[in-house]
Amino acid sequence: MNLRSKIGDKVFTFQSVREVMAKANNEKSGDALAGIAAESATERVAAKLCLANLQLKDIYENPVIAYDNDEVTRVIYDDLNTTIYESVKNWSVAELREFILKSRRQGDLLNISRGLTSEMIAAAAKLMSTMDLVYASKKIKVSAHCNTTIGLPGTLSFRCQPNHPTDSIEGILASLKEGLSFGSGDACIGVNPVEDNVEGFTRVMRAITDFKGKYEIPTQCVVLAHITTQMQAMEKGVPVDLLFQSIAGTQSANDAFGISATMLAEAREMALRLGTSTGPNVIYFETGQGSEISLDCHHGVDIMTLEARCYGLARRFNPFMLNNVSGFIGPETIYTGKEVIRADLEDLFMGKMHGLSMGIAPCYTNHMKADQDDQELGTMLCAMAGSNFFMGVSGGDDCMLNYQDTSFHDDAATREILALRPAPEFEKWLEKMGIMEEGCLTDAAGDASIFDK
Amino acid sequence: MNEQELIQSIIGKLVEQGVIGTLVEQGVITGAPSAETVAAVSASPSASQGDAGEPVTLPPLNEVKVDKPKNMAALEAMRKTTPARIFMGRCGARQKTHSFLHFQADHAAAVDAVFMDVSDACLAENGLFGVQTLVKDKDEFLMKPELGKKLNEAAKKTIAEKCVKGAQVQIIVVDGLSSTAIEANIADTVPALIQGLKAEGISVGTPFFIKYGRVGVMDEVGALLDCDVVVELVGERPGLITAESMSAYMVYKAGKKTVEADRTIISNIHKGGTPPAEAGAHMATVVKQMLSHKASGVTLSEAMRG
Question: What value does the mean pLDDT take over residues A57-63?
């Protein structure tokens, strides 16, 4: 293993695979905060060069966090297909990148995916430009089924996110009706509750489930409380289509979230046994670059590699959707519009390369140096790259979580720009409601009072 | 003929035809109109002068702007149930012009709240002297939260010179993530708080301002001044609904051992939430409870439950 590289007449020496991985990252404030970012533009390229020449077995043999010390590492290694790994372990990271970029068949990519650790996938992504990431992501489209199917070729779905600052049912339904009237809600109807308890969860879940039933909407309902709250509710007979949980790329960060791989397995098993949906994909995960930094649980590993490890954990549970919210974490991890667009594209590629049904929330908070233009650029690029879904928020402003995300307008416009369609069952429902005709919104669309005629 | 000459010749023709005589005479239209005059003309086309009439404003967000809805009464009733930006209408799949500009204005207010500093005039009007944390500038403040919890050496010296040690209560004003929140609220909150404390016979130290500060900076102040309670007024991270929201964090015997659960919090202080003067008076009541129970945060809540 060679950890030295030379750019011009300058030689750079790195101490570990972990250091090479961190310094090969494009600029992000989180890596600088952890004190592990490249110190100059040239050192960054030197690290990329060094990484390009490492063999996949170098990465395998030098996990960024030791197997014995970390559950996420154990999940990644225990779930690896060793036959496929053996067939690629002598490839350099450059060869992996080039194999991905020249590959013509999704099947080939998903096959080698089984023999790649999350760190190898992150390594390849570190050697990709913006267009490389879009180009590679576009090759993979993984579908998943809960009550309905998302991620079919030519489709783009949305979670309708009708949050309210006091969990007012009337207020939630007002935003929900508007979202549906714009064609948003085929990925799911999902509310972030203010209060995380069984009573609050039940009240919101029953309201959106009743609405879904009344109008026979082909979708799935989810209320994004802690997974233990959802499990308690499910045991009491509350209808649950989809179970939500945020996950992180280290065991210590997952401890802080109050979860473990064992708990996630139990939750999934319970959803299959007690839940209301068809399945087999019954889990909704959220992740974002830098959550481990915010919790001070990063173990000296860069935020992008840690994000890839989230996907290594996630794929064990065959989620219906994995939503990435890198723009939500904060300026100490991702500061500028350029950083967040880069993170969104890295995450979309890395998630898809893990075989996940990936979506992106190209979002931002008001204390970042990003604005609506950055958000819209990120959205269009992720749509071109074949994101399975986005969020859908009234006017782009989440009045409960206080951040900006894709609006119902953005969602509908993105479908139109790229000639993408809703999930097929949902499109039929939109036609029945008079909201959509031949893939286009009708004049009646955007009017929430079609539900109050 | 260059562009300038072309414009002049067109204006000349329009003047000949009597179309724009008045405006040209008054200097509102010239060959090279400034951005200001263009804006003024388009804002009030019928006015004889660019600065005449009321300035244009954004329509309120709570108006329903959906074109030809099936049931307007239903939309108007629903509009009242949420602060979400619903029922703004659409042009194709995009926002109408005014809701687009409203979003931009609200985001601009949020950005200004985060990135602008509390003015010297505001500090002078409120009789506050200012000190700074270890943070050098706004970028560092946002990207390195830990530095905003520690005072720089000059700050420690100034505080030692200007403040009395051992007062029962020390009030600090901290910019946090919204300078706008500080400017909008402290003139009402601080006097109401001090008045409330003095009415109870509680001694109050000299209040001061900390630039580039985070919530945790109160722990260092508590240790430095050996007071019973630190009250920190700090700007909250702005949303698009308001950039003026301020929080009060209160800790009994703040110091190195303080943890998050020790902080008693009153949030959402602004004219649309808990009004600033009312919040100040309420804080005085809470401080009195802290002093009598010798506790704050979760411990105080438990003590008060009995």
Answer: 98
Share of chain B above pLDDT 90, in %: 79
List the domain boundaries for chain A. Answer: 144-452
Instruction: Sort out which chain B residues have CB atoms less than 8 A from A402's CB and list them.
Output: 237, 239-240
Q: What does pLDDT average to over chain B? A: 88
Residue of B70, B87, B239 lying closest to A450 (CB–CB): B70
Written as six digits, the tokens of B215 are: 């919530």
A175 closest CA partner among B106, B213, B26, B84: B84
Question: Residues with Cβ < 8 Å from A351, sequence gap 6 or more?
Answer: A311, A322, A324, A358
Q: A-chain residues within 8 Å CB-CB of B88?
A: 395
Comparing C-alpha atoms, which of A103, A120, A28 is closest to residue A344? A28
A32 contacts B143? CB cut-off 8 A: yes
Topology classification of domain A144-452: TIM Barrel (3.20.20)
Q: Please give the CATH number for the structural domain made up of B120-305.
A: 3.40.50.11240
Place B32 in a pLDDT band, splitting at 50, 70 and 90: very low
Query: Residue B34's pLDDT is what?
Result: 44
Sequence-ordered strand ranges (E) for A354-435: 358-360, 389-392, 397-398, 403-404
Domain ranges in chain B are 3-43, 72-115, 120-305
- Alpha carbon separation from B96 to A136, A139, A442, B59, B232 (Å, rounded): 36, 36, 17, 12, 42
The answer for B 125-184 residues in CB contact with A (under 8 A) is: 139, 142-145, 177
Q: Cα separation of A244 and A228, whole Å?
A: 10
Nearest CB neighbour to B84, from listed A371, A395, A445? A395
User: In B, which residues are within 8 Å of A446 by CB distance?
Assistant: 66, 89-90
Residue A383 and residue A414 in contact, taking contact as beta carbons nearer than 8 Å? yes
pLDDT value at residue B22: 44
A407–B86 C-beta distance less than 8 A: no
Rounded Cα gap, residues B274 and B279, in angstroms: 6
In A15-54, the residues whose Cβ lies within 8 Å of chain B are 29, 32-33
Q: Report the predicted TM-score, pTM, of the whole model to 2 decimal places.
A: 0.90
Which residue of B74, B79, B142 is in closest CB contact with A452? B74
| Residue A453 touches chain B, beta carbons under 8 Å | yes
What value does the mean pLDDT take over residues A325-335?
94
What local confidence, expressed as pLDDT, does residue B7 receive? 53
- B100-145 pLDDT per residue, tens: 999 999 999 999 999 999 999 999 999 999 999 999 999 999 999 9
Answer yes or no: do B239 and A399 touch at CB < 8 A.
Answer: yes
**What's the CA gap between B213 and B177, in Å, rounded?**
9
The per-residue pLDDT for range A291-310, each reduced to its tens digit, is 999 889 999 999 999 999 99
Chain A: closest CA distance from residue B142 (Å): 6
